[in-house]
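Exercise: predict the structure of this protein bound to S-adenosylmethionine.
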Amino acid sequence: MKFDHVTGKCVDLSFEGKGVVKLSYGTVFVDGLFLGEEAEIEIQYKRAGSYFGKVFRLIKKSPDRIQPKCGVCTACGGCQLQQLAYKAQLDYKTKKVGDAFKRHKVENIEVLPCISAENPYEYRNKIQVPIGRDAHGHIVSGFYRSGTHKIIPIEKCWIEDPRAGKIISVLKDLMKLFHYAPYDEDTRTGLIRHVLIRTSYHYDEVMVTLVTNKDEFKGKNNFVKEWIKRCPNIKSLIQNINTRDTNVILGEKERTLYGPSVIKDSILGVDFLISSKSFFQVNPVQVEKLYKKAIDFADLSKEENILDAYCGIGTISLCASKYVKKVTGVEIVKEAIVDAKKNAKLNNISNAEFLLGDAGEVFERLTAQGEKYSTVFVDPPRKGLDQKFIDTLLRIAPEKIIYVSCDPETLARDVKLLSEKYDIKQMQPVDMFPMTFHVETIVGLYRK
Ligand SMILES: C[S@@+](CC[C@H](N)C(=O)[O-])C[C@H]1O[C@@H](n2cnc3c(N)ncnc32)[C@H](O)[C@@H]1O
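Solution:
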């Protein structure tokens, strides 16, 4: 197809934060074009009957357009909304949740305004960065250019915890000092592939996972010593070995090079040990608002037994435990259940149990054994609940379901099905991911 230039006006923002431009022959989704703006658009490709493009020349600017802090935000693609004023980002997210419910024909809903972040920058507690070389042979770190494997060098990413940037910068200095080459995907040579960093918000603790192309390498002990000396907040340093020719970042084999294999953070006064592979919400400030709202919506009492399906390392379970008689967490990843049990112990919480398995199957089995849950929290991955779990929820019909979701589309789909027996009492978007199109939503469902 011959790519073209067209002129058009943005009439909406899509699910992925792209400007929607309607033309006589179809819809164009445009990166970095905002509501009311007009632009000359360079069409880049066509997929599934729609066109995708970028702004070639802005003709009319939105009053909500701002100068982004990051110089490469348009090329990197990680922050789709960094050029949009924060208030407009929040309005977009509130509307996006409402639109998803309208599309799924869930009637008469009131979406509360999206809860904002006081500081919408420097929030991410987890990042993964490829290491490579630029055209001049200098060692660089950054993010892959959207849809490619070409690294855009980034010295400071404005949405990540600033402690991560310093650790990466020291790593690049040490690579020069120790003559460690970055991995080259074409020749499959070089040592350092990626670095993954997890920061604790409440403690000055950082976990670093260094992904290498070899198991052993020369000078490893001195390299580790020097890195820790220069970055004393590294509490845990892990080597992950990935020798495969693959896009998958992590390999199977891991060893701890320094410190314990976990770091500690806390949510609502409860401490959590986090290991390199466990799921932990990425915005440590907003997660407290999210869980507090979810617990408020559940209106819990000391007489209740509750279920936290999709419990991860037990975060919602343990934060809610003091308000209830007993909480049961269910999770499909074995390591997460091990962590959840450790976390209960760490906080001397004795009314929480954690079970391994598929949330729906375990719920079904427990209720068949006579267990009763007045409230069920669900916090599934993006794909939402499966039909079997929804059927079980509808059959057993606990009094309250508190649905926490990172995808308004699957949330709306599932709530539509649950609305057969449930009323929506509250619907609250929370901005867990400022500068991006993502939004987290909590829905309080009460049995009719
Ligand atoms: C969005 S995370 C939420 C974790 C936790 N509630 C939190 O806020 O940190 C979803 C979790 O569901 C788990 N999971 C995915 N499929 C599952 C299933 N079928 N049954 C139980 N857990 C599942 C994932 O491993 C992950 O830990």
